[in-house]
Amino acid sequence: MSARGSQLQKAWDDARRARPQIALAAFKQYRDEDRFTDLTIICHGHEFKCHKVIVCAQSSFFAAACTNGFQERLTSKVELTDDPYHIFLLFEFLYGQAYFMWNDTSNGLDFDNPRYLPRIHIHLYELGDKYHIPELCRVAASCFGSTLSWTSAQELLSCVQLIYQRECTIAQVLRGKIISQIIGRSADIVEDEEQKERLVKLVHENEHFREELFREQLHDLAKTQDPTGGWNAREMGRDDSPCSNHTPEIGLNWFGI
């Protein structure tokens, strides 16, 4: 991080320790009124006015763009290619340490899909990882986990598709949460013929999902065994164990498919 970036980070940390909510509320009001804004984020025709001291202090990506990026530094404009609604939520978080899912008609953002879907938290986690905002990753992961228990089987499997398509650290952080839900709610999934077919397809087509699903099944199975005999959870997950041949058929047998 540059010297100016370090100064911004220190100023932000000092403000948060002093009176964080009051400071954030004031900055958010200034942003909403377009007062003292000195940075514009452009995303598919939508413009988000903001303050460098707020954004750059929390994101090393934006700090680098505003201090090292030639065009961005001169114009105070940064162009992004992400979903505009997700960017709207990102800036809600930067100004309030939380994001609330509603339609932002002031920027022309008006979408029909429900805002409670867990996939929104996947996208926000991904943005936190992409733009180096660790606290956003933490909050998004927590929100994602809390919504899984009551989401539909259809949405649950859609989340599997999203997570296992990602190559960033989202795969490691969120996979465990989704695997536990898939196993815990297996009865709901197999009762729905359409969702059962989707699960079968996911198991056959995604090697990482299949391996992690099978390994978690082994751990659950090991918990029911006599602790003095047989294979324990660690042994059952070893590559040389009798149960290491995690074929799609073995994994699906757990669900009675």
Features:
15 helices, elongated
Please render the helix and strand layout as text.
Layout: H1 3-18, H2 20-32, E1 39-43, E2 46-50, H3 52-58, H4 60-67, H5 70-75, E3 77-80, H6 84-94, H7 118-130, H8 134-148, H9 153-163, H10 170-184, H11 186-191, H12 193-205, H13 207-223, H14 233-236, H15 248-253
Parallel strand pairs: 1-3
Antiparallel strand pairs: 1-2
Helix pairs in contact: 1-2, 1-3, 3-4, 6-7, 7-8, 8-10, 9-10, 9-12, 10-13, 12-13
Largest sheet geometry: 3 strands, mixed
SS field, number of helical segments: 15
Shape annotation: elongated
Q: Count all strands and give the number.
A: 3
Give me a quick take on this structure.
This protein has 257 residues and is mostly helical. 63% of the residues lie in helices and 5% in strands.
